[in-house]
Amino acid sequence: MPGSPCFLWLLAVTCLVPRAQSLDPPDPEEEDEDQTPLPPWPAIHCDYDHCRHLQVPCQELQRVSPVPCLCPGLSSPDKPPEPPRLGEVHIMAEEGRALVHWCAPSSPVLQYWLLLWEGSGSPQRGPSLNATVRRAELGGLKPGGTYVICVVASNKAGDSHVVAQEGGEDSEHVDLPAFGPCGRITVPLRPATLVHLAIGVGTALALLSCSALIWHFYLRDRWGCPRRRL
Q1: Cα 142 → chain centroid
Q2: Average pLDDT in the 90-97 region?
Q3: 59, 46, 76, 45: which is closest to 132 by C-alpha?
Q4: Which of 7, 101, 170, 181 could be 83's S-S partner, Cβ–Cβ 3.0 to 4.6 Å?
Q5: For residue 12, what pLDDT is reported?
Q6: How far apart are the first and last CA of the chain?
Q7: Cβ atoms of residues 50 and 56 within 8 Å
Q8: Where is average pLDDT lowest: 57-66, 95-104, 157-166?
Q9: What is the pLDDT of residues 164-180, one digit of tens each?
Q10: How far apart are CA 107 and CA 83, in angstroms?
C-alpha cells in the first residue's frame, strides 16, 4: 500500500537537511577569539660585550641562544673597520711590562695588533691577534720612558685608521683623542731605582758637607780665627 503524500514529503525534507549542522548563524565574537595571534617573543639583546676578553662572536651566540636575540649593528664588510677604543693600560714598572685593554669597534674584524712608538722613529708592531682578543701585553718598557700605544683592527677590506701615524716619525707631538685607538703612557721609575737614587743623592750631600767642614778647618788652622776688637 503506497504511503501517504504527506509522509513522503517529510521524509524528503529530513534527508536533505543534515542533522549535525546547526541552523543558527555563527557568533562573530567567537571567530575573533579563535583567530587572535599569539604574542611575539620579546626582543632581547645577546650577551655580547665589545670590551670582554675572548668574546664569542655575536652570530655564534644567536645560533646557540634558546630564544631569539639581537646583535649590535655592524658596518659593511667591504669597508675597513672603525678604530677600536683603547681602554685601561696597566703598567708594571718593576717588570718593564704593560697590560693593554681595548674595546672592539662596530665593524667586522678578523684580527688586531698593537703599535708602539718610543720617542721619534718608526713604530714597533706586535703579533697578530684573533678577533676574540681584547687584551695584550707589551714588554721591554724602560723606566721613565714615554710611549705611544695604538690598537689596530683589520679585515679583508683593510686596516683601521691610526691617528698617531699622521705625525710620521714625530708621534710625540700628535694630539690623541680621549676615546680613540691610541694613548700616551709614561713608565714610572722602579722602586729599586728610586732607592739607589736616594742613596746616591744622600751620599753626595754627605761628601759635600764633609768637604765644606774640612775646608773650613783648613782655612782656620792656616789663617787663624779673626779676633774682635774691644
Answers
A1: 26
A2: 93
A3: 59
A4: 181
A5: 45
A6: 182
A7: no
A8: 157-166
A9: 776 665 666 788 988 99
A10: 9
The DSSP code sequence of the chain is: -PPPHHHHHHHHHHHHS-SSS--SPPPHHHHHHHTPPPPPPPPEE-S--TT-TTPPPHHHHHHH-SS-EEPPP---TTSPPPPPEEEEEEEETTTTEEEEEEE--SS--SEEEEEEEESSSPPEE---EETT--EEEE--PPTT-EEEEEEEEEETTEE---GGGGGTT-GGGSPPPTTSSEEEEEPPPPHHHHHHHHHHHHHHHHHHHHHHHHHHHHHHHHH-------
Cell of 13: 525534507
Interatomic CA distance for residues 144 and 74, integer angstroms:
40
Instruction: Give the pLDDT score at 13.
Output: 44
Q: Which of 228, 148, 137, 214 is nearest to 185 (CA)?
A: 148
Residues 16 and 105: their CA atoms lie apart, in Å, by: 75
* Burial label, 115 (beta-carbon count in 10 A; 0-12, 13-18, 19+): buried
Distances in Å between the Cα of 220 and the Cα atoms of 4, 216, 225, 226, 230 are: 167, 6, 6, 9, 21
**Residues 126 and 115: beta-carbon distance below 8 Å:** yes
Q: How confident is the model at residue 6 (pLDDT cuts 50, 70, 90)?
A: very low
Q: Has this prediction a pTM greater than 0.70?
A: no
